[in-house]
Each structure stands twice: as structure tokens, then as C-alpha cells.
């Protein structure tokens, strides 16, 4: 395994642990920090073979990263440190649910309409622009041009969530079109019949 593949694997592992921590807090609403590791064991059964202390450390580290991102906050109740999900955390959970719903649509019957996402994000918000491109790529969109992406299935809810989460609503345009000129290569990319 190459160095880049190893780094990608480690990053995905960290992201999965963060998602499990966030999901656990979202389900419970609030969670005692001391109960974090046992709940993560049930959320991620594939890592049960790990030593418990290592997982507990990773779960606490993930919780700290989530707090830095603003997805959870630490509060003290009855003398115990607890985590609560924030509104930003709820949006992150909703975004992950929409991504999963989008993935589930792929392979279903196509309604022969294209969903275009076009954006014009100013240079001073380049980080947001790069993040949006990364999200589009991760969700399976196809890039037609730098700021024009296409998808064959309904994805309006995902786009609405991305607009709200990134606060770039006026910079993104979502369109549903009946045809795209010379779209044979696009259909082939998505595995759609001609």
C-alpha cells in the first residue's frame, strides 16, 4: 500500500469514528463523555477487536474534533461532563442521510431528466468552492465544467442542505433539464440506457 493510500485510509477511519460519535450523540441527544467509548463499540462493531483503551482515546479525540467543527458542545450537568449535538451537528447528520439516500437512488429507473448544479463562488471563498466540488465528486456527480455538475437523479434536498450548511445559497443554481446536447458520454458514465 502506497503512502497516499495509507493516508486516505487513516483519514477515512477518522471520519468514520467522528460520524459514529456524532450519530451516537444525535440519537441520544446528550451523552456523558464517560459513556462515549462503550456507545461507539455498538455503533462501529467492525472495530470491536481493537483494544478498548485505544478506541476510547480515538472516540475522545473524535469528540474534540467535532466540538472544534461546532457539531457538538461540551456541557456540565449534575457534575458530569456531557456532549450535546448542536444545530450544525444536526445539519451534518441530515447531510449524511441525504448522501446515503442519493447513493440508494443510483441504479433505479431514470426519469430521463438531468439535474444540473451550477455555482459561481467568489475567489475570496475559494475554500468553500473547493469543498463544494469535493462534496459533488463524493456524491457521484459528474463535472461538465469547473462549476457545472450533472446528476441523473433527484438531488434537490442534498443541494438545499449544502446551500444552508455552507451559507452559499445565492451562489448555487439547481436546474432540471430534459436534455443535454451530445449526452451519450454522460449516460455511459452513469450506466444509463441511451
Would you kindly provide a written description of the structure presented here, covering whatever features stand out?
It is a single chain. This protein has 194 residues and is an alpha+beta fold. The chain has two domains: 83 residues, Arc Repressor Mutant, subunit A (Orthogonal Bundle); 84 residues, 2-Layer Sandwich (Alpha-Beta Plaits). Helix content is 53%, strand content 18%. Strands 5-6-4-7 form a four-stranded antiparallel beta sheet, with helices on both faces. The chain has a three-stranded antiparallel beta sheet with strand order 1-3-2. A hairpin with a 2-residue loop joins strand 2 and strand 3. It starts with a helix and ends with a helix.
In the residues, how many domains can be counted? 2
CATH topology value of the largest domain = Alpha-Beta Plaits
The largest pleated sheet is described as: 4 strands, antiparallel
Element order, helices and strands? HEHHEEHEHEEHEH
Radius of gyration: 20 Å
- How far the N terminus sits from the C terminus, by CA atoms, comes to 39 Å
Class per helix and strand makeup: alpha+beta
Strand order of the largest sheet: 5-6-4-7
**Mean pLDDT score, rounded?**
81
Assigned CATH architecture of the largest domain: 2-Layer Sandwich
Q: Note the beta-strand portion.
A: 15-25%
Low-confidence stretches: none
- Percent range of helical residues: 40-55%
Give the helix tally.
7
Overall spatial form? elongated
- CATH top-level class of the largest domain: Alpha Beta
Please provide the count of β strands: 7
Please summarize what this structure is.
By secondary structure, this protein is α+β, with helices and mostly antiparallel strands.
Amino acid at each position: 500500500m502506497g503512502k497516499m493510500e495509507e493516508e486516505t485510509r487513516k483519514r477515512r477511519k477518522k471520519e468514520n469514528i467522528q460520524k459514529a460519535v456524532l450519530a451516537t450523540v444525535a440519537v441520544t441527544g446528550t451523552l456523558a463523555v464517560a459513556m462515549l467509548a462503550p456507545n461507539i463499540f455498538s455503533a462501529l462493531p467492525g472495530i470491536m477487536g481493537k483494544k478498548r483503551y485505544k478506541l476510547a482515546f480515538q472516540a475522545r479525540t473524535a469528540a474534540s474534533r467535532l466540538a472544534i467543527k461546532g457539531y457538538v458542545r461540551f456541557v456540565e450537568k449534575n457534575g458530569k461532563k456531557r456532549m450535546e449535538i448542536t444545530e450544525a451537528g444536526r445539519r451534518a447528520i441530515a447531510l449524511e442521510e441525504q448522501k446515503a439516500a442519493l447513493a440508494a437512488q443510483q441504479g433505479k429507473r431514470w426519469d430521463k431528466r438531468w439535474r444540473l448544479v451550477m455555482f459561481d463562488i467568489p475567489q475570496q471563498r475559494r475554500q468553500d468552492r473547493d469543498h463544494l466540488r469535493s462534496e459533488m465528486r463524493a456524491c457521484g456527480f459528474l463535472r461538465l465544467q469547473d462549476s457545472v455538475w450533472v446528476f441523473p437523479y433527484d438531488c434537490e434536498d442534498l443541494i438545499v442542505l449544502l446551500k444552508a450548511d455552507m451559507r452559499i445559497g445565492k451562489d448555487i443554481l439547481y436546474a432540471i433539464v430534459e436534455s443535454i446536447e451530445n449526452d451519450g458520454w454522460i449516460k455511459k458514465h452513469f450506466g444509463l440506457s441511451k
